[in-house]
Design a protein that fits this description.
Chains A, B, C, D: InterPro entries: Uricase. Chains A, B, C, D: It catalyses: urate + O2 + H2O = 5-hydroxyisourate + H2O2. Chains A, B, C, D: Keywords: Oxidoreductase, Purine metabolism. 4 copies of one chain form a homotetramer. By secondary structure, chain A is an alpha+beta fold. In chain A, 22% of the residues lie in helices and 36% in strands. The first copy, chain A, is built from 5 helices and 13 strands. Chain A has an 8-stranded antiparallel β-sheet, with helices on one face. In chain A, strands 5-6 form a two-stranded antiparallel sheet. In chain A, helix 4 packs antiparallel against helix 5. Chains A and D meet through strand 1, helix 1, helix 2, helix 5 and strand 10 of A and strand 1, helix 1, helix 2, helix 5 and strand 10 of D. Strand 2 of chain A pairs antiparallel with strand 12 of chain B, so a sheet runs across the interface.
Chain lengths: 307, 307, 307, 307
């Protein structure tokens, strides 16, 4: 046979599970999008169509919903760990499980209102508005021995309206760009960071706190960096996390440079003193890099977009 | 000629203007998406291609950016009023201008942090993160005499995890639905409300405060209503606004019923006591209605989706 | 009560029904997205939450799937007529039904291949590839007496690489556009046309043939018009349909002007003789108009976008 | 310094270039979306913000448009090869260039029409309608010595309405799926294939013909395979290409299983003899695998989605 099978994986993608926990009248929500990918001894299903080793994707879906009941959802990471362990340890042909999860945050609707004429307003503890902003992500991989947890976020849109410059760059025949000494710097942050927790024997990070802190450090580094290039800002965001969070060894960023072009108002007899910008769609700069703890292995794949 | 021209309009759509205002080191952002539609004496351009009466859409774009400088952007509504007045009063062939604006909200990145080792953190007043959640909208129409302002929002996702029932409905041969006595009620609020301000002689509403208050009342009515149907909740949301905001006479809602189906865990020997839900995409219920101040004219078009 | 209920409607949106018809080994597909909107005596469900008059949206969904079996799907229009008639005639509180349908076209995968080494290749009559291009649409409205059928399409992207000019337009203080004597004209056609069939006593149009012919005439008019403005092209597309199809009385277009800007290559010492263009996203011109048979009533709502 | 920089790359993404070639009155279109990613000696821009080694992304954009003039666009692959070679050979700090291109196909609008009353209809050779269906893709990588070309397509939606079964699978506590002996098999094909051309000394493949043939073989293999699992179909699609096209050594597929569920019509007293299906959105099965020429190295990254 001149053709052979290479890497392969399968499972049910995008299981939209919502878990409500009731603490008296006070409700809590976890809202996840869970994708399962299993791999192992799967040659036959590709070569002959024999499904003997194939746990149906429908079963992987059922397992997601059943586990939301059996284990609850303490965090996306912990939930993914339960799922990955289950598939690898319970199905002999499955060697590796990879669980990817997106999490959508909700906040409570504020109903206590001194001026409200409506009764009972401050008693509502089951009403929520979706927070918007970033989608939190995690990817749990387990091969029966070692864990790899890569968490992150995407679509966190940020802007500095000053403290950004761009000059002193290389020039060639096709260079027409003018140097900028005060520009807008804006991007949609996509980031994935890898935890150095790999073994059940080790103490597990506090996933919720770690996420909150990593996000805070990234945002603050973005705000506080006087930027000579988006690459410099990226590196500051990454190193701030590496320095502040000992549980994280590696972080990969994909940062579009959301161009805001200063509009030329001279034809209309107007001066534009960094006031009026055109927010462009395409094309955009795309800056991507990995920041590592010194000595750590680079393991996060470089491509976070599928352009 | 057996064929004639009916209603027509033209202009530049989706002008993405960002306006920065600097108050010392403290910056402020307005981030808009502005669409211009002009109509009037435009038969010839359709019949013969003569552009004599056609102000180019490129010019309408330039005007949006120039006005962001000349008038600033106090609110989306006020900005739209400046634009609409300009086109109608300065171009003889143009009888009516309609300006539609989407506004994206930003909040400041919090950098003051007692625990931060980084210097100057609390001095950053030019760093922002996009708020996410709803998109604010407005539509300004002016015919040279009367104004119509229809503001609103879209994509504000809300959920009540209890206090929703659905029973006692009509049944026919195709009815299989089981009655529900405790269900999740979730929707993406799209709302448009019409102001009763129509004349330059009248006192203009405070557009920013009115938006904030209308949004708050909608959310609180959603949270506080014990719901027997999404229609009932919709009506409570609308009447709360009409009763609370005298400047608003009419509101139109388009509310998808974002179904959260209780997952049947019995096959796995598990009970699902309103804990685990499957969040479905399609199909969804779609509930649409207008709520009016008694005596007001119904003027907002009924279709807010283009399904 | 200071607040009253205005127009309202409800139903299940986006029911994705696929109907396979087997003619021996030869299969046929109809692939629809069906949205139901019902209105009538629905005050109580809004005011008090009483669902006594409410046929559940779940039932409207079931009806769509059951009718695909009971009536088949001869055309989207005929299917919508069956549904609308059913809801209005079988449920006393329902006065009006509006059915909106999107249809996705498929074409057969060509397997007969003289060079193929694979057996039976030309026997495959059950394999399809989705056609892409436009989405066909229809909207059926029935109030128990009269029918209104508005069919159309959206997202049909077309381009003329020459035979388009734009000059002789009005100018004001904000005009900077240069006149163009040979430009690209490109748009995504969205069109809706209204049939003059309104009564069960009248002979119904051949919906499939009418769609195919209206589409052909639009495309040919687009191709054959030497254009001095997109408005002129629009009018030619509309009048060609009105003149060619006696069953259609009115057509509404929404045509974005998909700008293709000639790239300035002079800084690189190159001439750009209408060869290299930048295809821009936003902003874009938006040209909208209704074309009518003389004497016909204008009934299609003017807004086909929800910018 | 406890933190270091890992892999990094930058460039301008999504340059939308349209190239018109005029052969007398007959025009030809190439419509591309080009993304440039450069890497090399870029530590300083990350560490200190020095842009001395950074050719601006704006320049990479200009180069795309200038090259469309200077070299024309014979094929997406050939165009990417010109670009990659230029960046690596002309900028000393740049070690590797990766060019990703999406291509959108257009077909001519048929205007010759024996029944047309309109003059000159068959002379129109500059009018096009976008083909829809799949997006063609390619990725060119060059490090100054070796080439890697990975071409493919995405969003090619296909369906077999019979000749698909699924049974004999593994079962566990969470398995409820019923075996299927005649089901719909539908997917959106995403595929990337790697060419074994790596060296300027070797004869380059005919990129246009190779694409057309690979696409044809994939579609025919999909149609002609009697499928016991989507994995089996995937393998047939891949091996058909490997066997038929000697210039291709490896192919990676990502195939969602677009579930079409047979609707239960029994509650309505109706039988559903594989006639009426509900086309579901999420969740979906996701089947991914690489198919290789025996002895070839597996080089295409396994993740084609960013779930």
């Amino acid at each position: 046979m001149p053709t052979i099978l290479g890497q392969n994986q399968y499972g049910k993608a995008e299981n939209r599970v919502v878990r409500i926990t009731r603490d008296g009248d006070t409700h809590h929500i976890k809202d996840l999008n869970v994708s399962v990918a299993l791999s192992g001894d799967m040659d036959e299903v590709h070569y002959s169509g024999s499904n003997a080793n194939v746990l149906p994707t429908d079963t992987t879906k059922n397992t997601v919903f059943a586990f939301a009941k059996e284990h609850g959802i303490e965090s996306a990471e912990q939930f993914g760990i339960h799922l990955a362990r289950h598939f690898v340890t319970s199905q002999e042909p499955i060697g590796t499980a990879r669980i990817r999860i997106e999490e959508y945050a909700w906040e409570r609707i504020a109903t206590s209102d001194a001026n409200s004429r409506f009764i009972g307003a401050d008693d509502v503890k089951h009403s929520f508005v979706r927070k918007g902003q970033e989608t939190r992500t995690t990817q749990i991989t387990y091969d029966g021995q070692k864990w790899e947890v890569v968490s992150g976020l995407k679509d966190l849109t940020v802007m500095n309206s000053t403290n950004s410059e761009f000059w002193g760059y290389a020039k060639d025949r096709y260079t027409t760009l003018k140097e900028a000494y005060d520009r807008i710097l804006a991007t949609d942050v996509s980031a994935r960071w890898r935890y150095n927790w790999t073994d059940d024997e080790e103490r597990m990070p506090n996933w919720e706190k770690s996420y909150e802190q990593a996000r805070k450090h990234m945002l603050q580094a973005f705000a506080e960096t006087y930027s000579l290039s988006l690459q410099q800002t990226l590196y500051q965001m990454g190193s701030r996390i590496i320095e502040s969070r000992s549980e994280i060894d590696e972080i990969r960023f994909s940062l579009p440079n959301n161009h805001h072009f200063l509009v030329d108002l001279e034809p209309f007899g107007l001066e534009n003193d960094n006031e009026v910008y055109f927010a462009a769609d395409r094309p955009y700069g795309l800056i991507e890099a990995t920041v590592l703890r010194d000595g750590a292995e680079q393991r996060i794949p470089v491509d976070m977009t599928n352009l």
